[in-house]
Amino acid sequence: MAEEQARSEAEGDVLPWTVAEFFRGQSVLLTGGSGFLGRVLLEKLLFYCPDIDTVYVLLRPRKGLSVQERLQKMLDVPLFDRVRAQRPEALGRLQAVEGDTARPGLALAEADARVLAERVSVVFHLAASVRFDDPLITAVRTNACATRDLLELATRMTKLKALVHVSTTFCNVGQREFEEKLYPVAGDWRSILALVEARGQSDSVALRALTTKILGPYCNTYTFTKNLAEHIVNHYSDRLPVGILRPSVVVATALDPFPGWIDNFNGPMGLMVGAGKGVVHTSYNDPDSHIDYVPCDVVVKGIVMCSCEVARKGLGPPLVYNAAQAGLHRITQGRLIDIAHEASAELPFSDTLYHPCCNITRNRLLFLVQFFFFHLVPAVIGDAVLSATGRKPMLIRLQRRIYSANMALSFFLLQNWDFSSKRFLGLEKRLRPEDREGFSYQLDGVIFEAFFRDALRGTRRYLMKEPDSNLPQAIRAYKRKLIIHLMLKALFYVAIIWMILSTLHFLFLAE
């Protein structure tokens, strides 16, 4: 099997069916369907696979909404406009299933588990907690235990053709160059899962105390548990057809269904929004480092292609793909901030706290000094004003969260990472001509600067809910705050010069 796989990859054999043919009559189970990647994947399947049978979406009730109501709310966004306009009947193929990846056995009712076991032939496991500061108990349950429970459910699926587990390129440590293969496991996953399940409720304090020792060289619980999950998938590979796809930092869509769709603050968009709103003025970051960004639609196309390749491969060691550097040029963090500053003049946010400006530095002491003067001091003054006017103070709390987020990300922002993506890019060779329009993810013609401008425009429209009609007003406010910023900057330098001259004058008089 391994020799046949290697020969197939070397020769670039095309798939024996188109993507639409592969999914014809198939039922799919999707976890993480309410997330960024999950919703884009749903749209892709519904639009390009018109004969798919049923897509089961695992959801939990939330904020008083049933799972079916949550599903309907998930679809009520511009992302699905294309499906509503051209394939409205496809929306009827979606079916919500009540479950929870943070609970034992996915909290599935036995009747639902039986239906899934009888009908599902393709599984996409996208659900995960992506918070870096989750307690070990939460991260293990959501990212590792849930993966094991899903794989156990998959062993009951009599029609299963492929299971794709979505991981992350950052789930390994020890070097800065990563190939498309499994790396050593972070720990004995069986013992860690057993420990959490046996003592999580009764001895959570002890587990928190042991977290640092258990994590070892891993910088947070997210990367640690995603590594465990990969090896859990590998453990089941002799019984299930499985594949692992590792995205790098996922950003807005580049082309499909349209440029700039985004619905979360993860990755660079959080920094760009914070700087654009005048809340973030300094970042502990290396302006010369390169972070690997990949558009969401590219990752989703890779997930679909991975399922097709896994189905052709069958049982055996999991195929591993690094969804990284998909034809886009590398860009430094410093250049990214420059693009954000330039785009802010064309696409400013409304109701900004201050003129958009952000300095990045790799010097931690300088960062702390800048954070004190540009973040904490204004926050203290702002909260005092809010309290005096009878409003709830919130700026210090906000700055505490910004600081914690920056510290958590600094491990990734202060160094370069290189991910081999030869196999991932090689999936393009498997495409049949009929699939190239919908599933080709080579973006050689995309200009990165234009891409991030589209992403910022999408952030303004879809994430911040600001209509294009208020742009003229926002631009006028931007210009007013720019003038105030320049005046304050000039006053600052005048004060510095005055202090220097005053000191020199005093020294000369003293002589």
UniProtKB/TrEMBL annotation:
Record's keyword terms, sorted: Lipid biosynthesis, Lipid metabolism, Membrane, NADP, Oxidoreductase, Transmembrane, Transmembrane helix
TM annotation in the entry: 365-390, 486-508
GO process annotations (BP): long-chain fatty-acyl-CoA metabolic process
GO MF annotation, one: alcohol-forming long-chain fatty acyl-CoA reductase activity
InterPro entries: FAR, FAR_C, FAR_NAD-bd, NAD(P)-bd_dom_sf
Keyword NADP assigned: yes
Domain Fatty acyl-CoA reductase C-terminal, residue spans: 374-466
GO cellular component: membrane; peroxisome
Entry EC number(s): 1.2.1.84
Statement: the UniProt record of this protein carries the keyword DNA repair: no
Catalytic activity: a long-chain fatty acyl-CoA + 2 NADPH + 2 H(+) = a long-chain primary fatty alcohol + 2 NADP(+) + CoA
Domain of life: Eukaryota
Subcellular location: Membrane
Thioester reductase (TE) domain residues: 30-303
Membrane topology according to the record: Multi-pass membrane protein
Family according to the record: Belongs to the fatty acyl-CoA reductase family.
General function of this protein: Catalyzes the reduction of fatty acyl-CoA to fatty alcohols.
PANTHER family per the UniProt record, alphabetical: FATTY ACYL-COA REDUCTASE, MALE STERILITY PROTEIN 2-RELATED
Protein name: Fatty acyl-CoA reductase
